[in-house]
TrEMBL record:
Keyword Cell cycle: no
Coiled coil (UniProt feature): none
PANTHER family: BIFUNCTIONAL HOMOCYSTEINE S-METHYLTRANSFERASE_5,10-METHYLENETETRAHYDROFOLATE REDUCTASE, METHIONINE SYNTHASE
UniProt protein name: Dihydropteroate synthase DHPS
Domain Pterin-binding residue range list: 1-265
UniProt-listed Gene3D superfamilies: Dihydropteroate synthase-like
Stored PROSITE patterns: PTERIN_BINDING
Entry-linked Pfam families: Pterin_bind
Source species, domain of life: Bacteria
Length: 293
């Protein structure tokens, strides 16, 4: 699976302070570390960036591209003017990725022509006028609307990274299966489109963040997910994404296929955790934090 490094994020204390102080050192250090870890994109997340967003995005893009020129950047903020400033400052032969364009007309009617102007790839976020879609069918409806509008603006399906929206396991357990069902439909809806997701959302608020992220990524990839936004410091997750842990992938698939029904069916302790996590993510049990203990 392709990976988008999430660590240049304003909510990370060191990075948030570096953005505020216009200090390039931490930003460039993390960008180089993400490159060394094999990330396929580097995400620059400014958050809302309501004050001085355009100037900040322009500065961060230039700062990262001083040291990393061969990996595309994902420009991530809800400030549309800041996105355009980043696209205007973007240099080199790589294609920028705009993260993200919501399925809300007041947003996409402005953002899609802008992205087409710079021929950027886009994350088509399936967050509609009523917020989070309730199931795979509402996701499909929003996907058709947003991707059709992107085509009309001049963006081919291959430039679209559909994001079905990952929700926390401990709050919206059924939504995680709805995402898997939607992914099985995506190529019939938008042939050639890519896909992505904010993977760590699935474990948000739980004490079992890394294993849940790792297990759900395996499930998403099997369902057809093209890429995930990930923490490059999670070495096991990166190894799984690069196809280096087929043993763990096989365990998750066997749980999905009903060949493994109990953690006691495997002897390895890591595999036991993966069986438990897979059962929770599949809705075979009602999730609780104590399930892994």
């Amino acid at each position: 699976m392709k990976t988008i490094g999430e660590n240049l994020n304003v909510i990370k204390k060191e990075i948030g302070q570096a953005f505020k102080d216009r200090n390039p050192e931490p930003i460039q250090r993390y960008a180089l570390a993400e490159k060394a870890a094999g990330m396929d994109w580097i995400d620059i997340n400014l958050g809302p960036a309501r004050k001085g967003g355009p100037e900040l995005m322009e500065w961060v893009v230039k700062t990262v591209q001083e040291v990393v020129t061969d990996i595309p950047l994902a420009l991530d903020t809800s400030n549309i003017e800041a996105i355009e400033a980043g696209l205007a400052a973007y240099k080199g032969d790589t294609v920028p990725l705009v993260n993200s364009v919501m399925a809300r007309p007041e947003r996409y009617t402005v953002m899609l022509p802008m992205c087409a102007k710079y021929q950027a790839d886009i994350v088509a976020l399936l967050w509609g006028p009523e917020g989070l879609p309730r199931d795979e069918n509402e996701r499909a409806s929003l996907c058709v609307e947003l991707c059709y509008a992107a085509n009309e603006a001049g963006l081919a399906n291959e430039k679209l990274f559909v994001d079905p929206i990952i929700t926390p396991l401990n709050i919206q357990q059924e939504q995680l299966m709805a995402n898997l069902r939607f992914m099985a439909m995506l190529q019939d809806i938008v042939p050639g489109a890519k896909s992505t997701n904010g993977l760590s959302n699935c474990s948000n608020g739980t004490p079992w963040r890394e294993p849940l992220n790792q297990i759900y990524m395996i499930m998403l990839e099997r369902a057809g997910m093209y890429s995930s936004i990930v923490d490059y410091e999670d070495e096991l997750l990166v190894a799984i994404a690069k196809g280096q842990r087929p043993d763990l992938v096989e365990v998750v698939h066997k749980v999905q296929d009903g060949e493994i029904k109990d953690p006691g069916d495997v002897s390895d302790e890591t595999q036991k955790v993966f069986v438990k996590g897979a059962q929770a993510l599949l809705g075979h049990i009602l999730y609780s934090d104590s399930w892994f203990k």
